[in-house]
């Protein structure tokens, strides 16, 4: 048993600390939910810098209430990084936690409640026909762990800061305090691939010095088990816009004559993937670094839940069949985030769309380079007969090229992962294990993407401790957090702050 | 020369009447533009019944000012048909003019001016790089015929009523008056395929009795020549929505696993047409009635402008090559009006869309049945492996069918055309010829669609007299009317009102 010292000097075991934290969470569940709800009430659309700035001020107040010193690091987009420090007198080691407070835009008309006015449900409805009724906050202060709070960023990732602060409060309520210097780096533009992060990391590298770094966001494994992830995938975001004319034309007077950009786009997109779900772009998989034997072994230890997931999500058959989800997220993907051309529904009219756009994300695994992958995809587009430009085409270009596509690179960064036997990874697994009911799921990589290579190339390998339920609907309507996951995150952070992994 | 009688009894030739109308238009151009502009300032989105009702009241005032009796015929959607009558003392024959006053919804952000606040330009810009500057109303009251007025429904079709009333004003200013009983039927839901029209026609068949019926809307031939059309195509409007799951899923955590509805839709749509632009649906062309020898001859007499159109619209190559536009509009079409799934641009997020929708219009030519055509298209979809439903799928249906599409029939009606040698058609051609500079372009069918079969099956064959410039951008952004076309329409209606075609 490792001895833990309280502010008064008495020694306890980590188990006693965690028991105290659990008790604190039960007694203060209402306060935790209230602090998260207040935070969610500050709208945080990543595309609205002023909203992001209001969030930064809001969270600085939350931090200062606990004695953190805080500062804002401006970025060119006007969405600041917030850096905060809480020194621990006598501590010799430093923990840096990275998370973010911005959110994806709200999906108009798709939510069943106001995304910025959190509501509580005692079940997890799914689909239009389900029961979407809400429940009141409990008068007796008893919050069941299976209840869910619904709102934008409750799970991705305003819960991270609330859980860290809750851990500090829980320790202090027991007369204890963090045993490590704590630094927080809170991103305000993570949902737009953190364009300001590289410059900030270089400018403030000394301030960010730490012995260990944790990324606290994302979803735990679908089994609900506590999870540690040793890597993140990279990403490539781009748009393809097919252009066929200077103007939309009347479909009666010019149908059969004016080419339809929406149809052209559909034809082009259908060439990008085979019907078995694999990517048809030549060379797409060439640079994928295969998993090591020990990583394959780790994959096999992960619980297999495919049939339950298909049932829960209402999916009749996976896109790629015959392979485990864990294998699939260790492969790259190519995904249409969106497709738009002309008008549908009430806005539809009898026109031939002159342009149509697909927004695409590619998840990169270790070995793949974003730029080279983009070049391969453009080469594929050219092989379909398209002339590719990087700007809205001029009239002359339109008249010259019957098959014309505008390709726009939006963002890209590579994957990163630390080896399974990295000592810092193992010590984090031990801390998470101590704070929760084992077994902990250890994943060689998350399916998600964060630019953690930026930290890694500055000597700070990043290990992820995801804290939200897998079915939290992050990035879509009805985002929600199961309360048990909030309470568990408080315990995990309390363990990490109490016993510094050696 | 046919003798025309003024109110005072003096006889003039039709040529003299038209000369007087031209002179009236020159002197009163400002008043014509002002009356059209005031009408356009009443927003007329077809999907907003209250806006349509405001338009109905506005146009009733316009009509009553000229001595029409008016009444509103309600429809289930709340968008009334307005019926108006202006008897001509001593006249023996009745002319019924059909047009509409609703408009398609405004294309957000695509207009270069407020669609409901008309502006004037002395040129016709095209494309984002062009010069979109406007001009002031001329202080000297001289309006050039090549100038254009920009606003929603300036060309489709608020100009029709303004031109009819302008013709009456122009006759009266010369001391003349209409020589036929005039009836107007003004539709408030034409842009949504006139669902209330069939019932209204049956309920009010006696009120609508007429010797001749004209449809006054649409675009003249691209040559700018005055045009008479002897038919309209039918239409079939439907939506296809591919569903793959109950919920959008995170593209990192579930890419390769959750099927992407946008990709599926693209794959499905790309099967609907061959790369040569023809429709790949089995049996699609089976029932097309071939053109008669005389109709083929009429097609050959139509001016050929394909190279100029391609240049003007910035199109490098027509969808179907090697055939004249006039032939192409005598063939059926299948056109993606719109395509939407997930999110693009600023709204994009890293999700896998669970559903994606295509909105499609099919233009039907003589012989094709809307319902049978729809059935053929659904059979094609089924041959691609899809299970077709007519409702949003239940969770059970989603779990059971890996390829699932929801098909929604929105509207459909068949084509109609009168034979070239129909005497009423020939007499209208003569009136239009008298009012304008010949030659008049006579087209066996318009590319556009109107439910004129409803009138035809009640013994009122419909002949179309389109009055707007072909490049008026109807149904899309920057809709505009060339002023010369407004003045010419006044002259055409003055001729039709002055000399009843025998």
**Residue-averaged pLDDT of chain A, rounded?**
93
Query: Strand order of the main beta sheet of chain A, please?
Result: 3-4-8-5-9-21
| Distance between the ends of chain A | 14 Å
Helix content of chain A: 25-40%
Describe this structure in words.
By secondary structure, chain A is of the alpha/beta class. Chain A has helices at residues 14-40, 49-64, 158-173, 197-203, 251-254, 261-269, 293-301, 306-313, 325-328, 370-383, 395-400, 423-435, 453-456, 483-498, and strands spanning 3-5, 11-13, 69-73, 81-86, 94-100, 119-121, 148-150, 181-187, 212-215, 227-229, 231-232, 234-243, 249-250, 333-342, 351-352, 355-364, 387-389, 404-413, 416-417, 441-443, 462-464, 480-482. A six-stranded mixed beta sheet of chain A has the order 3-4-8-5-9-21. At the A-B interface, strand 12, strand 13, helix 5, helix 6 and helix 8 of A face strand 12, strand 13, helix 6, helix 7 and helix 9 of B. Strand 14 (333-342) of chain A pairs antiparallel with strand 14 of chain B, so a sheet runs across the interface.
């Amino acid at each position: 048993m490792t001895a833990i010292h309280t502010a008064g000097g008495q020694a306890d075991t980590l188990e006693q600390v965690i028991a105290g934290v659990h008790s604190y969470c039960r007694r203060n569940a209402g306060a935790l939910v209230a602090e998260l709800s207040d935070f969610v009430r500050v709208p945080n659309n990543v595309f609205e810098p002023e909203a992001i700035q209001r969030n930064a001020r809001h969270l600085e107040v939350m931090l200062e209430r606990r004695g953190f010193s805080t500062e804002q690091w401006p970025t060119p987009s006007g969405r600041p990084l917030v850096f905060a420090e809480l020194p621990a007198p006598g501590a010799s080691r430093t923990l840096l936690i990275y998370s973010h407070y911005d959110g994806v835009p709200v999906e108009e008309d798709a939510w069943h409640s106001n995304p910025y006015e959190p509501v509580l449900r005692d079940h997890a409805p799914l689909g239009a026909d389900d029961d979407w009724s809400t429940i009141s906050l409990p008068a007796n202060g008893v919050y069941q762990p299976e209840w869910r709070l619904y709102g934008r960023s409750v799970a991705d990732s305003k819960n991270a800061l609330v859980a860290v602060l809750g851990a500090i409060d829980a320790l202090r309520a027991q007369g204890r305090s963090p045993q490590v210097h704590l630094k927080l780096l809170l991103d305000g533009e993570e949902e737009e691939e953190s364009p300001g992060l590289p410059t900030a990391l270089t400018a403030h590298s000394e301030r960010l010095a730490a012995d260990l770094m944790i990324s606290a966001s994302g979803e735990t494994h679908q089994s609900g088990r506590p999870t540690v992830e040793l890597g993140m995938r990279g990403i490539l975001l781009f748009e393809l816009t097919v252009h066929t004319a200077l103007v939309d034309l009347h479909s009666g007077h010019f149908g059969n004559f004016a080419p339809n950009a929406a149809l052209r786009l559909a034809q082009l997109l259908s060439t990008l993937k085979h019907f078995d779900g694999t990517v048809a772009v030549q060379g797409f998989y060439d640079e994928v670094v295969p998993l090591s034997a020990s990583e394959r072994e780790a994959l096999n230890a992960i619980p297999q839940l495919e049939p339950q997931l298909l049932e829960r999500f209402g999916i009749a058959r996976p896109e790629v069949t015959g392979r485990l989800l864990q294998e699939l997220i260790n492969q790259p993907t190519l995904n249409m985030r969106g497709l738009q051309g002309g008008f549908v529904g009430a806005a539809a009219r009898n026109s031939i769309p002159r342009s149509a756009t697909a927004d695409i994300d590619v998840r990169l695994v270790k070995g793949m380079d974003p730029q080279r992958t983009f070049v391969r995809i453009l080469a594929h587009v050219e092989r379909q007969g398209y002339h590719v430009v990087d700007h809205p085409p001029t009239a002359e270009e339109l008249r010259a090229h019957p098959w014309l596509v505008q390709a726009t690179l939006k963002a890209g960064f590579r994957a990163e992962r630390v080896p399974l036997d990295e000592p810092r990874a193992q010590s984090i697994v031990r801390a998470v294990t101590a704070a929760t009911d084992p077994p902990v799921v250890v994943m060689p990589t998350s399916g998600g993407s964060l630019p953690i290579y930026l930290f890694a190339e500055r000597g700070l390998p990043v290990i992820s401790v995801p804290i939200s339920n897998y079915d939290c609907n992050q990035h879509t309507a009805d985002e929600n957090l199961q309360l048990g996951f909030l309470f568990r995150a408080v315990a995990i952070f309390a363990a990490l702050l109490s016993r510094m992994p050696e």
